[in-house]
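Worked example 4.2. Below are the chains of a multi-component assembly; read each line carefully before continuing.
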Amino acid sequence: MQTAASPRVRPRLGTDDWILRGTMLAVAALLFVGILLPLYALLSKSFQGPDGGFVGLANYANYFSNPALVYSIQNSVTVTTVATVITLVLAFFYAYGLTRTCIPCKSLFKGIALVPILMPSLLPAISLVYFFGNQGIAKELLFGNSIYGPIGIVMGEAYYVFPHVMTILLIAMSMSDARLYEAATSLGASRTRIFFTVTLPGIRYGLVSAFFVAFTLIITDFGVPKVIGGQYNVLATDVYKQVVGRHDFEMGAVVSMVLLVPAVIAFFADRIVQRRQTAALTARSVPYQPQPSRGRDLFYLIYCSLIGAMILAVLAMAAYASLVRLWPYNLSFTTYHYQFDLRDGGGWAAYRNSIEMASWTALIGTVIIFVGAYLVEKAKGFREGRAVLQFLAMVPMAVPGLVLGLAYVFFFNSPANPLNFLYHTMTILVICTVTHFYTVAHLTGVTALKQMDPEFEAVSASLKVPVYKTFWRVTVPVCVPAILDVSMYLFVNAMTTVSAVVFLYSPDTALASVAVLNMDDAGEIASAAAMGMMIVVTSAGVRLLHAILTRGIARRTQAWRKR
Amino acid sequence: MANDTAKQADDKRAYLEIRDVVKKFGEFTALKDISLDIFEGEFVCFLGPSGCGKTTLLRAIAGLDIQTSGRIVQAGRDISALPPSERDFGIVFQSYALFPNLTVRRNVAYGLENRRRPKAEVEARVKELLALVGLPDQGDKYPAQLSGGQQQRVALARALATSPGLLLLDEPLSALDAKVRMHLRHEVRQLQNKLGVTTIMVTHDQEEALTMADRIVVMNHGVIEQVGTPEEIYGHPASPFVADFVGTMNFIEAVAGGEGRIRLDGVELAARGAEGIAAGTPVTLCVRPEDVVARGVGEATPNSFAAEVQELEFLGSFFRAYLRAAGVRGTEIRADFSVNLVRDLGIREGMTARLALPTERILVFAGRAGAAPAA
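Applying the procedure described above to all two chains together yields the following C-alpha cells:
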C-alpha cells in the first residue's frame, strides 16, 4: 500500500529537544558513574587475587569451602524470614486497626508507627541491649536466652522495618472498594468469609510487596546484627568483617555478590507484583467506611496502644540510657555522654558532618532526581534515552548499602581512576548517599509528574515557550509537595544511614551514624545511644519542619489545588 | 455558504497541504497514505470512531507525533520535519491542559509574555481575548475555580492569543455535559467565523461535525473515507461506512435487476445509483429512516409497497417504526414518522401501511457491504 518512493521523515530537533537530550545525557552519565561502574569494579574484584590478577572463580570456591562463611547464608535467611513474617503479622493488624475500625487517635498511631524511620538501625539494637542485655531491666523475659544472637536480631529488625511494612499495608488497605463489602454482606457472607474472600485478596499485592521490601531491608541491614548479633554471623556483618576486620577485600567482594542475590531477586519479584497491581482500583470505586463495633474497636485500640507503647519504649530507653551516669549502678541524670569530643568516633564534628552531608544530599539529590524523573516522564520522543535513564534510576533499589559502599571503595580508590581525588571527601559521601536512595525518591517524583496533564508540554511548545520555562513556572510549583517529600526523605536517610558510608568516611568526614557504630564497638554504649538520640532529634526536627512547610504551602495554594 | 468556500478554494492554493502521510507505530499503521487539502479560513472536522487515526493526523499536523513519511505544507512552508515550537498553530485539548497554578489571565498571557512585548500590550490583548470568549471578569481566578465550559473557553483564548495561522481542536467539547456542549458548539463556530482562522477539529461526535464544519473528513482505519460538506456527507455518503457512521441508515440486502432497478424478493424498486450495476449482482440498498414516505402513498405511487408495522417506539418528537415489507424475508426497515403523521394516518402496531422509498433518496452499494459496519 505504501510506495517505496516516499522517504522517511527525519524529524528536525528543536532547541527544546537538544536541551532535554543534553540534560538526560548528563543525568544518565552521573548514574552511570554513580552505580554501574562501581558495581562493575566490585564484580571484577571478586574475580581477582590480592595482587589484582584474574583468578577466575577461585575466590568463590574459597568462600563456599569455608563452612563458617557459608553458614552465614543460612543464618541470614533464617533470621530474615522469621523477622519478616513477625513484622508482617504485627503490622497487618496495626494497619487493619487504622483503616478498618473506628479507633480514636488514628493519626497519632500512624505517627508513632513511623518513629523507627528517624533512627539508624543501630539505635533500636542498643536500646534492646538495655532492655534484655546482661544488665537489662527485662532480661528475665527471655528465660535465660541471650539477646545477643538471633533473638536480638529478629527483635531489632522487626522494629527497624515496621514502619515500612505498615505504610505499604496501610496504603493497600485504604484502597479498598466499599461496594465489594456491600455485595458480600448482602449475599449473606460471614465476617470470616468476607475476610478471606474480599479483604485478603484485595490487599494481596500489598502483602507481597511488603514481604519483599521487608526481606530486602532486613537481609541487607547491617546495624542491628552489628550491635546485637554477638557470635551469630550473617552476610551483612561478614562483608564488614572481611573488609574492615581482615582487610580481605576480595572475599568482601565475594560476600557482597552473594548478598546482592537475594536483593536482586526481591527487587524483580516486587516489580512484577507492582505491575499487576495497577488496575486494582478504578475511578468508580467507593472508599470503605468502617462502622463502629464496640468489641472490635476496643480490641484494636488495645492492640495498637500496645504496639505503639513498645515503639516508644525502645526510643525512650535509648534516651534514658543516654542521660544516666552509669547504667545500672548510678541512675542520676547527666549530659556527660553527650560530650562526644571526649570519645573516639569523631565527636561533635561527626554530627556536624552528618548535618552537612544530609543537607547537600537533600539539596543536590532533589534537583538531580526530580530533573531525572521529569526527563523520564515528560521528554517526548527519544524513547531509548528515557528507557535507559529509567533503568539506571531503578538499579540502586536492588543494591544493598554495604554492597554499594564497597563498590565505591573499589571504584574510586583505584589509582587508575581519574575520579580518585574524590575518595575520602565529603563529595563522595554525598554522591554515594544520593545514589543509595535514588530509586524511591525517583518514583515519588515520577508519581507526582504522572498526575500532571500530559499536554502541558505540547501546549507550551505551541505557544513557543521553551521547555525549561514551563518546567520552572508550572511543573516545579505544581510538584512542590512531592519535591519537599523527596528532600525530606533524602535528608532523614542521609542522617540515619550507616551501611554505605561505613566504608567511605575518612577521619575528617566521620559521620554521626558511623560514630554510633564506633562508640558502640568501643564499649561506649551510652555515648552511642546519645549520638543516636542526636540523629533522632535532628530527623524529627526536619520532619516537623517538612510538615509545617507542607501545610503552609497547601494553605497558600488552596485556591488552585482544590477540585 | 459552506459549499461556496470549498468551491472558491478550488481556484487558489490550499493553506494546508497534506500529501501521502503515513504514520506507523511499530507494526501498526495508524495513517495509510493520507492526502488532503485544507483552505484558508475553513472549519474542517476530522470525524471517525476511536482508533480511526483522526487524532494521529492532528498530532502529525502539530508536530507532536511526526509522521513516518509524507509531506505537510502550511502556507507554502514545508513543515514536515519541524518540531512543534517551530510551527504556527494554537491547540486546545479535551483536558483543557490549563496551567493550574497560574490565574486565567496568566494562562492566556503565557505565550505572549515570552515574546517580550510591552506589559501594557500583553494586558490589553489578554483583556480583549477574555472578552472575546465571554469571560471578561474571570481573569483573576484559577482554572480549578471555573466550570468545565469556562475552562475550555480559557484554553481557547490561550490558543488564540498569539494569533496563530491554524487552530487545532482535539475533541474540545467531549468532556463537557450535553447542554454546555451544544452552547459551546455555537460559540466556537461564531468565534471562528469572526476571526477567520483556519481550524481543524477532531471529533467522534457526528452531530458536532455536522453542525460546526464547513467540510467534514470522515476517517476509518487510517484512511479517509470521504471529504465533503455536511450536506454531502449526510445526503450522499460515499461508502457504507460513512452512511452508517453519520446519522441512522437502513441497510437492506437486495439484488440488482438491471436498468436502474433493484429487487428485494417480491418488491421491485427504481434507484438512481443502480444504473451501472449488472442484473443479478448482490447489492445493498440504503435509505434513511426519515426518507421513508407514508403520507399520500397509494397503489400507484412509484417505489411503493405494503409493510406491516411490527413495533412503534415513541421517542418524544417522533416515532420510530420497525417495519417489515410484505413478501420480503429478513430485513427490517426503520422509519421515522412525526407525531402528526402517526396521528393523521392512525399508524399503530400490527397494521399494514403503504410506504414509498423515493427514487432519489435511495443509495445503492454493490455487494453485501451493509453487514460490514459496526451497527
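Take a moment to check your reading of the output against the notes. Chain A touches chain B through 39 residues (CB under 8 Å). DSSP finds 24 helices and two strands in chain A.
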